[in-house]
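Anyone else keep sequences and structure tokens together like this?

Example one:
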Amino acid sequence: MRSSVHLADAPSMADSLPSINFGFDDLRDRMARFTEKFDNFIAKGRKQVLADRNHFRINVAELQEEQRVKQKNIELLAHKSSDHARSIEKEAVETVEMHAAIASITQQRDTCAQHRDRVRAEIAAVRKQIAQRLAAQQQHAKAFDIQARFNNPELDFWQSYLAMRIDGMGVDRLKFVFTHVDEKNWAREAWFELDMEKTDYRVVCVKPKLEPDQIKTCLQRLNETRNIGVFLKGMRGLFTAALK
């Protein structure tokens, strides 16, 4: 009995173990705060989703309105483009008609101009004929006068001595024709034309062909001395040498 009481009063092994504080209260408090934050996060997320959804709906409505306005503008522009195309087509037709009218007027003008030019040409031709007839009369008179200047005993001597004749070729121009310059054919002619229109005489035509420098030498002597006899003798010599 005494030992049983003694055992009851003695400390147990569980009482000798250290006490352990699991912190359930602190854990419960931290869980409560987490739950509150999580609920706030969920509520805030829902609010943000609703706001985004409303904003999206507003944007969609604005885009639909903008699309409607643009579609209306497109239809208006298409109508204007159609009107513009019709205007361009009308202007093109008017342009073709205008060009046709201009071409017709231009053709009439050209016809009138051609008629005018033809009349002017006829008038000029008549005037030219009159001038030619007057010039021919003057040439004949002048050629006769020039021929008369050489028609003297000295000229007769040179014509006979050089086997030569002189033909009038118009105003201030004479043709000198030589024969007996070709030993094989005494009848063969060699000639040249002398232009005396200016102070310095010029040889304008020669047959057969002579060297230009040789002709130039004879002409230079003639223009310096005015000795026609020496000139004619020199030209005959050139023909004779050329036909050998």
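And example two:
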Amino acid sequence: MGCAMTLFPIIGEAASLVQKVRKTPTNSLAIVSQAMELMEQLRQWQVPSRTMFEQPEDLTSEIQHSIQTAEAYRHAMLLYLHQAVPEIPSEPSEALARKALMSLASVPLTSRAIIVQIFPLLAAGCEMMAEEDRHWVANRWDSMLLRLKIGNVSSCMKVVQEVWERRDKFEGDKAERTMRRLQARGIPNGDFVPPMLNPGKRKAHTTEAATEEAFFGGALNDGGVDQESRPPKAARRVTFDSNGAAGVTINGPMTQRLPSPGLPRQIDEVVVNQLEPEYTVRGKLHWLGVMEDWQWE
């Protein structure tokens, strides 16, 4: 992991800050400021040139495997910081977790690099909601356990499974309470499906605008351009948070580009994405909360 020698000092500072957060009831201005600086360092960090590293002697490993593992750590730490200081604009938890797991998935199980992948698999694996994704995470733990044969791997796997169970119950209870409130208001069971919020997210008021004309009140059509001749436009999703601030997300075909070396990274979706308290590092639905309950810290 020599390719991450400049990344691990940032990770160490971030981990220390998270421990500080867990000892305080709320995040101070100093904590938010320090977290913002660390997040920006993690976002802009890039792997040094591959020409600086020699090919590993282990024939099962490649330089690219270490690079992908470093990227998994980077996204896992961004997720960790977001869960500690959700006041800072960030990509959603699931998006950061998926990026970390995508990096891990690109490393074959035969590679020696998997022996240092415990933390990103733990931090990101807990965020998976789909059964298929959870199955992949569980299989990855099984494969890692066969390779390492140490108790830490088995313990981490149990923590992830406990987080899944707690979150499933939490979301199920929340949906049931929502249904009971709707029934109390006289809404028939079959006539309404309650919206499912993404796990851990604050409630938001949303409205859909299918075109730019719908969102801007038709002002863009003043020039007399034939609407039928225009190319189809991406849908916009306008989100209003509890403070009345609005954000616009364009839902349409996107082309992903790899960042050019030496250029600042582009952040896909950075929004103020407040988490419910139980999903933060202080909560019982976080893997740190499980470890604390089990006295495994």
